[in-house]
Structure formats: structure tokens, C-alpha cells
């Protein structure tokens, strides 16, 4: 998924995982009670947490669901939300005690049974677009009584599990209204009103409009929201830019083009451009089953040739105006343990001679026909220019013939897991501030990519770093994992970027929520 949000050290992550204790479109209406309007081009796949693992869906879930733990605005410090406290009872058992008196907006009590149900349901449904891969460390979850839930973990002293509770796998749903074996549609979820977060949802038209109304019964990390919020969805970032510039919406969050941002920065009397910590990763995924090549050796040669031909600097400067910068590893620069494994293996400039040799040595006939898919509505309108640039770079020396194809995100997210795309665009917003979140969801068994990549040696590295409380040792293991990604190239990292939001000059709280947790919290916003 889920965004760019973390500079937390491994030591801090280990400490947090060990113990978290309670210490604490159209023009807008003139009606002052209308609240704030936020615009976005991100699309919702599913409000149901078991059926989505994407930024658009997470933006809704952040507002309406409660989590055991959460990140307060402006912080990456894990804080109790529905939980009163969470701690390791023993090395493989992590226990959370709930606050008393919690309830869903429909009036049903929120108990430990709902919590256990929520996590087990994600695993059991195992939807290809869902976050089940985040729960690979969980062997079992059970409610001991109404206020106590216990997680049995696959490995002792898991350094990341507490942070998983804050991710797309963490929303608590109402077991009385959510079926155990299938997803709720968005309309069914809104009608069920099984929400316990800062907001509930009033009027809802999927990927058109969602009205978020303050939930007066919310008792959690974010405190009391300051304003009702309407989310307006845009098919075109040009209209998003025009509406925030005219004041027809209060905040534009994902995804304005670099040119739009550059233009809006010059209009300081009308709008404010806000930036937050970076960490978003843009990359190409290779489907190891359907990509070009006769057998594993040829397929690897094709991937190595592509890695030798892409020019990240050109895409960064010419397409993204420096708002995205080159990424040379599966773990972006700035994250603890990040390396530049792809630069070490393939250089930072195109090398046609090396690309040609990879293909010739494996007996691959050229030009290689590569069908490359991208989404026009999920990663910003500059995706068109980005992938036109990739096409030019791969074809420049006659080694590739690239067929670019685009698909709207709702269809794209289904077809990519059905082996319809030999190579395709994806982006990643990390779920929690740790290098593991750029590795385990991608390369562990049953991973998010659904690209037929699985390697026992990689799994062992991922398992080892996750339970290693020694920072230097853990970083060494993370480096080995990144080297393996560069050698095997299940993904080809291209760029990493920052969070950007644009607001009217009278809007407060935007900077507070553009933090390294990568949760855009409506509860922080006010006028």
C-alpha cells in the first residue's frame, strides 16, 4: 500500500514493538456547516479492510475504523487507540487489553471478539487485493475475554508486529455485520455503520463523493475531530488543481502533477503547498510466469537488460521536475538499512552494451516484445509521460519493442493478479516506518505483488531480520535481501517521492498529518 512515512530507527521500532503502554467538481456550498472539502484522484477499491490494500481505500479506512494502536498526528510513536495497552506476554504471544465502553457507531459493543474476528477474517478471506500478506507473522489470534485479545506469533520477539496493527490489516470491524467468509460491498459497509473511528459515513457514491461525519463516541488516538469532511473524487488532476486554486475545495491530496505543483507554489496568496516526508516507491513488476522469455534463464536476462537500460535521472528531472528522485533499491533512500543495490549491479546510467550481452548470453532473440501496463488514474496523470519515457529508453538501441497499455485502476487491480499483465506499474506507500515494509509484503510467500515470486533464501532473510534486535546485524541482513532483489529483479525500482498536499491559506492542520506515518487524518484539519 499503502505512502511515504518513516524515518524511525530500528531500535525505536524494536522498543515500540516490545511494549506499548497507555500514557495517555462543482462549486462548494456557502453553508458554513458544510465542513471541509478534500479532493483526490485516488480511487477506492474497497472500504472493507479484507478486500483492499491501496492508498485510496486506506484514506477512507483511516477515518472510519478504529485500530488497536495508531500514530498520533505528527508522530511515528505507537499509541493506544482501541487498546489500553499492548505488550509481549512471552516471546511469541502479544497481548492487547481494550479500553472499556467501546462501541461501533451502530450501537454494537466493540469487544476483543470483534478484534480477533477482524484479523482472522482477513486471513480466511485472503482476497488477492487484500492485506493478508501483512499477517504472515500471525499464527493465531483469540479473544480470551471481552477485553483481552492474544496474538500467537510465528517467531519470537517479532520487531514489526506491533506496527502491523496500524496498517491496512488493522481496522477493527463489527462481527455482527461483517460476514466471516466474504466481503461487504461499499454500500453494504456504509449501511451497516460498523465504524468506530473518528468519523462515520453519510452520503456515499463510490469514487464520486463520500461525506464523513464526526463520530461523537470515538475514543482513541486522534482525539475529537474538528470538522465534518466531504471527500470529492476526481478523474482528472487538472480539475483537482483548478478547484483548489479557485477555492471550490479546501485541500487537494493526491495526485497533482509536478507541473501543477510548480504552478501552485507561485500562488501563495491563494493556496499553500505542503510537503511531508518521502518514501513512496514507484516500480515495474515482472510477472515471472507470463513475461517474455523461454524459461527462467531467459526471463532473468530480459529483466537484467531492462535494468541496464532505464534512465531514472531523466524521468526524475523531465517528467517529475525533481518531486520524485531515482530509486536504486527496493528500500528507498532515507530508510534505515537502505542500500543502492541496483546502482551497484547495473550502474546509474543506461548501458546498452551490458543489456545486449545479457540477452545474447541467454539466447534471447531481439527485439524483445514487452507488453507493459500502467494505470492512468491511480498514480497521477504524469504516469503517461513516465511510461512513455520508459518505452523510449528500452527501445532506444533496438533491444526491446514495448507495447504500452493502460487500464483504469478498479479493473487494473483485478487483472494484474489474474496474470493478465506480463509487466506492470505499481507504487507503494509503506504501511509503517520500517525497511521491512518494503520487503516482506513484496517478496515473502503469498506476497502483495502476486507475480509468482517466491524464494526460500529470501524468506529466511526476511524472517531473520524481523526478529533481530541488534541494529547492525539487522541492517546487514536487510542489505543481503536488497542485493538478492537486484540479482533476481522481481521488481525494477524507478523513483521515490514526497507527500504533497495543497490547501487554501485558511486551512489548518495539513502539515500535522503529512508525517512519516503516512496517514492522512481528516481529524487534524480545520479552518
UniProtKB/TrEMBL annotation:
<protein>
    <submittedName>
        <fullName>Peptide ABC transporter substrate-binding protein</fullName>
    </submittedName>
</protein>
<comment type="similarity">
    <text>Belongs to the bacterial solute-binding protein 5 family.</text>
</comment>
<feature type="signal peptide">
    <location>
        <begin position="1"/>
        <end position="22"/>
    </location>
</feature>
<keyword id="KW-0732">Signal</keyword>
<feature type="domain" description="Solute-binding protein family 5">
    <location>
        <begin position="77"/>
        <end position="447"/>
    </location>
</feature>
<keyword id="KW-0813">Transport</keyword>
<dbReference type="InterPro" id="IPR030678">
    <property type="entry name" value="Peptide/Ni-bd"/>
</dbReference>
<dbReference type="InterPro" id="IPR000914">
    <property type="entry name" value="SBP_5_dom"/>
</dbReference>
<dbReference type="InterPro" id="IPR039424">
    <property type="entry name" value="SBP_5"/>
</dbReference>
<dbReference type="Pfam" id="PF00496">
    <property type="entry name" value="SBP_bac_5"/>
</dbReference>
